[in-house]
Amino acid sequence: MAGEEGPELEEELPALVQQDHHVISRPIRDALEKVGGEMETQFKRNDKNYIVGAVNKAAHWGYQTWHREIDKEVVDWILAHPDAPANELRTLLREIYSRPGVSWRFPGYKVP
Fold this sequence. Notes:
Blueprint lengths: L19 E3 L3 H10 L1 H6 L8 E3 L11 H16 L5 H12 L2 H4 L9
Antiparallel strand pairs: 1-2
């Protein structure tokens, strides 16, 4: 029966259900600006490669705890490794976004 399984197409969802997620959030951008160097030049907040739509409202709505935890982990890593090559940060982001607790929110997203 129609409607029992919920909407299957994005067009069936209310307009504000899906939020964009910035992999390079404001706190991460601020940490990158603080350390400068190669990492800052490689990762920009509004780079379309680092903006991904969440699968639904439950997956991303506002600045949830899971998002703050990721930001803290990444910011702490950046500040502890200010001279690291950009590829090392990319490896960390790939590991984070492949975790089951994160990957379900953004199916199919791969950190470039």
